[in-house]
Amino acid sequence: MEINMNLNQHEIFISWSGTDGERIAQLIYEWMRHTYDEASRKVFLSPEIKIGKVSMDEIINALNSCNKGIFIITRERAESPWINFEAGAIFKGDKEKDIIPVYVDISHEEITNAPVSLFKSRISFTYNDIYSLICTVGSDLKWNFKTSYNYAETTVYFKKEIDKINEDLKQDSIMKKVYQNCEQYAKCYSYRDTGCVAHLDENSFFDIRKSAVKEAIGELIIAGPSLTEAIGSSARNNRSLRSIIQESIKSKRITSLHVMITDLAIFENYFSESNEATTRVMSSLNAIRTDLLSVCNEYKCDINIYFLPLHDMDHVVLTNEYMLYRATKLWTHNAEYKGEFLLYRNIGEQSEYAIQYSYLKTLMRLCTRINFDIDTEENDSDTFITKENKQWRRSIKNNGYEICEKRLGELKYIHLYKLYDSQLKHYIACDWKGPNYSELCFTGGKFIKNQEDLFKSENLLNDSTQKYLLPYVKETETLLKGVVEKYGTAEIYGERISDAKIYPSLELGFPNNAVRLAGGFATGMLVTWKCGTPIVPVDATVNVCSSSVFELPDDYNMDQTDEEFVDEIQNLIRKANEAGYAFNFASGNHFLMIAEDEEEKNI
């Protein structure tokens, strides 16, 4: 392509950096030349400095003479010193000159450090935006359309070219890095069925891992036994992801961060003091606390930290497009049970990426949320590891982060979770039993068709005691459900497998003493629950019970003998039994009292 180097009367300076930037700059330059007579003489297409090419003086002269600067901004070269030098030179020369960034595969909001972020252009590399740009600059500079200009032909040609470039750009920098350096990365695959892109050597793995995180959009998942080389405070600079994550959160590219790490509680019975395993994990947790939490809180990015009871957690960095993966069969000191370094791409539901994503999401759903109010207070029985965990949680709680107004003991953007080993086993067991399996069942009858009908007092003799007690029983069920939902979050085929139900019965009824809870007993209701984590409900209503009061009629025979009175009472009990009540004087603390009304003198 012929590029004008006549430096006397330039009005537009096109700046670029990198292979993609050059390709786009040449397209815009060519489009202008096809459209305007003046373009060949008055548009300067900047070269990147190369020995034997255009001199620095020539470039400076072009920068000084132009009225408008068009800057091609790609993600790969967004902070290019060369582009920012040229933008600064134009702006410094005359602040009335137009600086026009064209954002290719990155948005204006994502650029935080580069000087071009100061200029307010919102032009993207689309046909409509570039067409509008070319029309606007031509009109501003009063250029003349070429007599040979054909709108229809130009539109078809350049729209096709822009679409082609944008399609090529979808093969992002990671893929380019893999394919351009195939020998360096030892072995490349052609996706196959698993979506595997490359088998990487160690240094390449960490290099591409950083690139993948830098390009991540939306959700980012990072998992590993200790994550020392990813986010730990001792991570080497060429491997650490902390600063990249910080910048991605600030630029709003990452809006949700999930960190999955080993729960040191699995070693509570084995570690009584700090060692290398605890040091590695705590190094990562402290780095998260000092370097990531404040950024997440300030920029409203949800960060979810999951403590998992696994000794075989694979290292995974999972973005919307890629998965960096290294298997861990056992987490040991010498890392002798770790696998090879692999790169996968998200290509479909059966890909390795999709399977790993589904697995990690299932672990997240099984977890129990850690409460900052309840799960931070130390007690004398705490082990060394428990004290370390609670101290770390307290340091977060007391840091002044924004709290969640709807749920007590929780922060708005910072969430901690814990997975219990029993939750994982419970989920697997229920999955094998099938979607229709249930341990909580109720067989209805003619009048009471379902469990909810038991909360209607008219179905339980409709007496005043039942009307009073049933709402409290229902509230007890609601509270118990809340506990079960916290510690049993698993679902099978879309249905929650943990639940709690209470079956009310008559006040002295179904069956008496059937369910005894620590600290008291629940008479008149059957309490059932099914939870992934073993829980023991405690009845706190000690020595609180209900009473039934019967007033004898006015014409009752008060002159009968003791034997006759006993017979009368037994007759009343018999009739009550026939009506549905069940009196029991053989066990428990049930008793019958006879009283006389002081004023009415009634029994």
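the 2nd protein, sequnce then structure:
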Amino acid sequence: MLKGSVERQVERLKAEDYKLWSSLSGFSLQSKLLTEMS
């Protein structure tokens, strides 16, 4: 019972973490491109 809910929380954290990282990496890629172009 408890293990299942913990696993669900971990999955949710992973999903949030992934969204955060993808937006961060997307941002850093954009700024890198901008600095190279200017």
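The chain has a mean pLDDT of 88. Residues 19 and 35 are 24 Å apart (CA to CA).
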